[in-house]
Amino acid sequence: MGYNPPPEAVMALPYDPQHFEAKWQEIWAREGFASVDTAGEKDLYMLMMFPYPSGDLHVGHGRNYILGDCMFRLFLQQGRRVLNPMGWDAFGLPAENAAIKNNTHPREWTVRNIGRMKDQFRRWGILYDWDKELASCEPEYYRWNQWFFNRLLDKGLAYRGSSPVNWCPSCQTVLANEQVKDGGCERCRTPVHQRELEQWFFRITEYAERLLEGLDRLPNWSDKVKTMQRNWIGRSEGCDVRFRLEGTDEPITIFTTRVDTIYGATFMAIAPEHPLAERCRATAPDADYGAFLDRLRNQTRLQREAEGGEKEGRFTGAYAVNPFNGERLPIWVANFVLMEYGTGAIMAVPAHDERDFAFATRYAIPIRVVIAGAGMGADTVLAEAYTGPGTVVNSGPFDGLASEVSKTEMGIYAEQRGFGKRIVRYRLRDWLISRQRYWGTPIPVVYCDRDGIVPIPDAQLPVVLPTDIRFGEVEGNPLAHSPSFLAATCPRCGGPARRETDTMDTFVDSSWYYLRFVNPHVHDRMLDAERVKGWMPVDLYIGGIEHAILHLMYARFFYKVMHDFGMVPNDEPFQVLFNQGMITAFSERTGKIEKMSKSRGNVVSPDALIARFGADTERVYTLFMGPPEKEVEWSDEGVAGAYRFLQRVWGLQDVVAAAANQPGGPEADEKLRVATHRAIRKVTDDLSRYHPNTAIAALMELCNSISDWQSKASGEVVREAYEALLKLMHPMAPHTSEELWQLLGHPQSLLRSGWPTYDAELLARQTVTVAVQVNGKMRTTVDLEPGASAAVATAAAREAAAKWLGDKEVVKVIHVPDRMVSFVVKG
RNA sequence: GCCGGAGUGGCGGAAUGGCAGACGCGCGGGACUCAAAAUCCCGUAUCCGCAAGGGUGUGUGGGUUCGACUCCCACCUCCGGCACCA
After folding, report:
1. What is d(CA A428, CA A549) in angstroms, rounded to the nearest whole number?
2. Radius of gyration from C-alpha coordinates of chain A
3. Residue A193 above 90 pLDDT?
4. Do A479 and A501 meet the contact criterion of CB atoms below 8 Å apart?
5. Which one is predicted more confidently, A507 or A473?
6. Which is it for strands A236-245 and A251-256: parallel, antiparallel or unpaired?
7. pLDDT (0 to 100) of residue A9
8. Are A391 and A404 in contact (CB under 8 A)?
9. Which of A294, A456, A664, A699 has the greatest CB tally within 10 Å of its CB?
10. Cβ neighbours around A245 below 10 Å, total
């Protein structure tokens, strides 16, 4: 059996995707398959994370968009009304750096790249509703960043504050905590420095609890992303306790999660940046105290981490009084206490905290057990800190309580006496949005000598980026050197004012673009309440895992704020989140398998690939490589396999034509029909759970079945199989399937030809192969009618397994209908 | 250290607790060809065996079960995140 080539005369042309791919791209665009009027009823809103228009797309980028297009086409074939827009995250540093390098304007570079990328999408056969296209660098878009900034300001959710911030000397700007990775700038890896600066913040900490709680209502987000966000938010329950600075009435507050150990505190430790540390400069006993402080404060995060947890400190000379027992505790400055977390001061309990233990050991500070675990007593000498639970000892009135109980009791005690408070703290910091760069949304405020910080009234928005800027001529932010931009009028008093020259973090843009897509042509307001109510939330959001914290947390924050403002109908923007894995490749330069990137020299360009094999080959291969959520390595051999598959499908048109009038036979017809309908069932199921890889495997099997039965089945059945194959493969290989569909004589696009349904009755009446086990070992199989009774199945299985059963006693028979029969025998 | 995910042929990978290795790549053999490429057909976990057949196999060790890649416990390795967070 196999491929019997039909006579030369009727042979179709060889598979040549160059010949028809562009044609179909044009037809799809012209017919407007992707356009949706959002004034109408919502069916489904799907979205890919909008890209930064960097210009060069490689096959690794393709994965995201190809997967999305595959799902989109499936939905369209199934007759659904789907909003699937695309836009550009168009502000950002690369454009500005390119402008400096080439002496152009960031806009030119950006617009050119957008053009290139749109063209790339088209050549991949990817459809979007381009009528909804937006670019965040357009005043039409970013004016709403400014408008929303004003709303945040109204509610006290935007504020200007001073705090130690991360400064990247290479990018010449500050960064949010979320944008610092391993102590370096996430973009350029330059170590960041801490600087005390006045900057604009969004009060995301106000929403910490709700950001945390909301995660529980997102069953269709991966645990990975949710865990990352939970870690980032870093909730911990504890107690603030107010100590007194000895010899004064001055309080010094610490935060602890282990108030149950407070009788074991033998010293207090404060961060080098703590105000008290500075005040003790003159009186501290160690001569190098001041130098020590300066050294710690000037350390970068990276340097601090490089010290590998080595505990170091100096005695300040001051003492704190423990409000629980009146004991005086020496106050030390310690390198392991962070000013950013809690109050920047801790009570140190060496017996029950590893860090405190290490520090106390080094500086010969007493260690006092107050929690006795199993086998421990009040006088146990510890070789290491005991951090587990136990019975409270050496703790006055609390002795004998279980540590968990005393944690609550002591908290209540402190509250009643007025020197403490049970409290929840978070690791999450407020979102620093100021950037000292040009290519971003101007922060809409002015500084007036008389009125101070004055926001630009809504009616005067947008504050537009000036265009008379020469790039590369001055250090730092060119806005700060633009006299026309700087000079402003105070909206309040009409006097002269200086305009804010910082721009907004580009993550502000991406925090709400998915809302603008619903009403991109509404010009008098940010959002159209009706349409937003109709279409939000996004049902399916596809993007890379690299945004697990940054974009996805900021967007959730914005959405919750908007919910509180009554602007959106619910409080989580993305129902289902699908994170596709990276495509990697071997890099000659580094000798490793790594993420594709220009700098690693391991990119595969889609241009050459499309020129040689066509876009469908790249699509099929990309989807076939492995499950889309996993990381996979690109292989040129694998591409050839995808090409071969498409070629075989193409070649089958001759087979179908040759079989057209043949009568077939009942057995062959049934066999091929079963193969066809099983494929329909499997492809439908697999695609709906985002497994295009196994869906393609099923298509390959159907293709093999058609080859196998083409000469024996009737022309009608062969054609049915082939038409199903074309419909089923359309989401993965849209050009090839459309062309073949048309060659079969169908005037309508596959996008309007429906999705096949399978004949459940046909599949249900097929004989089933039932496994036969003896003592748990798989021995043989029997073919049975579906739904065979236990008696029938057991009898057949007993006969088939006679060889293994012999005359042994059958103790038990387990029958799983249509699956297996298992004998348990004795002896 | 804590949290999440993963470990299956030469490779990418399939398998609601019920025939492990679908499908593809690669490799071997064959057909076609003067020859090669392309294409098509057959084979391809491993060990014993000419074969029929049988043994062993899903990171390691235990457990639950008639039956475990799948569930439970302990451990190892890799990937990702957080990390002196009090």
Report:
1. 11
2. 34
3. no
4. yes
5. A507
6. antiparallel
7. 40
8. no
9. A699
10. 17
Q: Which two tokens stand for residue A721?
A: 């199989």
Strand B at less than 7 A from CB of A107: no
Q: For residues A686 and A148, give the distance between their C-alpha atoms in angstroms, rounded to a whole number.
A: 42
Residues 263-292 of A with CB under 7 A from strand B: 271
Tell me the three state secondary structure of residue A67.
helix
SS3 content of chain A, % helix, strand, coil (to 5): 40, 20, 40
> A774 forms bridges with which residues in the sheet?
A777, A823
User: Residue A650 and residue A627: Cα distance in Å, rounded?
Assistant: 26
> Straight-line distance from CA A613 to C1' B15, in Å?
32
Q: DSSP letter string over A149-174? A: HHHHHHTT-EEEEEEEEEEETTTTEE
Residue carrying structure tokens 């400014």: A146
Q: Are A151 and A565 in contact (CB under 8 A)?
A: yes
Q: How far apart are CA A394 and CA A664, in angstroms?
A: 93
Task: Encode pLDDT of A467-492 as tens digits.
Answer: 888 777 777 788 988 888 999 999 99
On the CB side of A165, CA atoms within 13 Å amount to 26
Question: Cα–Cα distance between A182 and A189 in angstroms, integer?
Answer: 8
Q: Cα–Cα distance between A710 and A691 in angstroms, integer?
A: 29
Window A764-823, strand B contacts by Cβ < 7 Å? 769, 771, 773, 775-779, 781, 803, 812, 814, 816, 819-820, 822
Asked if strand B contacts A309 at the CB level, meaning under 7 A, the answer is yes
Q: Which chain B positions have some atom within 7 A of a protein CB?
A: 3-5, 12-16, 18-20, 22-26, 38-42, 54-55, 66-68, 79-82, 84-86
d(CA A773, CA A775): 6
Tokens found for residue A144:
């709403």
pTM above 0.90, yes or no: yes
A285 near A302, Cβ under 8 Å? no
Q: How many whole angstroms separate alpha carbon A270 and alpha carbon A264?
A: 17
Using C1' positions and the CA of A823, the closest nucleotide is B66
Nearest nucleotide to A186, CA against C1' atoms: B81
Q: Mind listing the pLDDT tens digit for each residue in A198-245?
A: 899 999 999 999 999 999 888 888 888 888 898 889 888 999 999 999
